[in-house]
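A reminder from the course coordinator: this example appears on the midterm review sheet, so study it carefully.

Given structure:
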């Protein structure tokens, strides 16, 4: 099977139909499908349609809740805490963004923490929902049930990559920052392990604490870890950021590694900020637009590769996907086809 190209809408409908066939509420399936397809559009292929078969399996096994609502643990207006009961993460996060956005005009800043969510997929897909509304956003996630990164100076896995995403609006285009507290990700390591391809640099540690570029050290039983940002030399920086994310997601949520269930999930920290509540929207845009202009004007190391702002590549890919469709790799297409055949769901036509 070769790579095939599909329209954005047809892939979204496929994901919605597959997740609904697996038992997910239709409204939730539509929300999750939107986040997954946007993940492919921005280029984060490990967090796009590739997740659809994995989510379906979680639904079938009862490890992702198919229906229901989050439990409200606390709600003071400007702060709310939910227990997600392992409901679909992209839906929970999108709903939290919607709720926070309705309140931020009154409070200026609204903060939400979700504990026991399921996996939330591509963070860029989610912060886009906030910047589309002209809001600044901070989003972080961690999974208290698993570990792939050792604390700085150690060699035993403890943290997940604990991604942090920050977005803010601009006059011409928003800025989207989406980074992990590790040098690389679990998804990328698994991809390279399956392809038996080493990393270009020693971004992992083996079970003895030696830096390596071999992705197989993250295979089950190999006892290796991902290196934190900064590597062996300056990994205290990634370690510190990991602790920050755990504080925001576990500490504030009141649920973490102390008491977590051994199942795929996420704790989530979300904060929306309305620039109008601070020095004013015009002042905000004036400052951030100027900073973007100065970055673009900075003399490049390579004239063929000038400075670009975080998110610009993703936004270009979104435009291209809307115009020309999305490529689906043979591996993902096989998994989607198998799932569609099992559920009796028709595959969309290719471009």
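Designed residues:
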């Amino acid at each position: 099977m070769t790579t095939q190209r599909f329209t954005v809408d047809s892939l979204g409908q496929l994901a919605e139909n597959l997740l609904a066939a697996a038992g997910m509420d239709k409204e939730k399936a539509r929300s999750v499908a939107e986040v997954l397809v946007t993940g492919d559009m921005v280029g984060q292929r490990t967090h796009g349609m590739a997740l659809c078969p994995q989510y379906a399996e979680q639904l079938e096994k009862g490890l992702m809740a198919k229906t229901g609502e989050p439990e409200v643990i606390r709600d003071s207006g400007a702060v709310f805490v939910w227990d997600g009961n392992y409901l679909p993460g992209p839906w929970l996060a999108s709903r939290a963004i919607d709720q926070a956005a309705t309140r931020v005009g009154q409070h200026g800043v609204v903060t939400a923490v979700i504990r026991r969510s399921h996996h939330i997929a591509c963070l860029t897909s989610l912060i886009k929902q906030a910047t589309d509304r002209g809001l600044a956003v901070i989003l972080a996630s961690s999974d208290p049930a698993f570990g792939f990164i050792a604390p700085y100076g150690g060699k035993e896995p403890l943290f997940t990559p604990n991604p942090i995403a920050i977005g803010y609006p601009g006059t011409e285009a928003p800025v989207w920052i989406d980074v992990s507290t590790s040098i690389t990700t679990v998804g990328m390591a698994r991809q390279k392990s399956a392809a038996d391809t080493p990393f270009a640099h020693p971004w992992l540690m083996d079970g003895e604490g030696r830096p390596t570029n071999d992705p197989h050290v993250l295979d089950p039983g190999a006892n290796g870890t991902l290196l934190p940002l900064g590597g062996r030399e300056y990994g205290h920086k990634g370690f510190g950021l990991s602790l920050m994310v755990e504080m925001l997601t576990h500490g504030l949520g009141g649920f973490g590694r102390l008491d977590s269930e051994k199942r795929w999930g996420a704790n989530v920290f979300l904060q929306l900020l309305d620039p109008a509540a601070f020095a004013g929207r015009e002042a905000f845009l004036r400052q951030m637009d100027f900073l973007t202009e100065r970055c673009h004007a900075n003399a490049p190391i390579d004239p063929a590769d000038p400075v670009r702002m975080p998110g610009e590549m993703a936004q270009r890919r979104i435009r291209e996907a809307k115009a020309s469709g999305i490529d689906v790799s043979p591996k993902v297409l096989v998994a989607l086809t198998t799932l569609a055949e099992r559920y009796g769901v028709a595959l969309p036509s290719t471009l």
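Residues 89-107 form the longest helix (19 residues). The CA atoms of residues 77 and 103 lie 7 Å apart.
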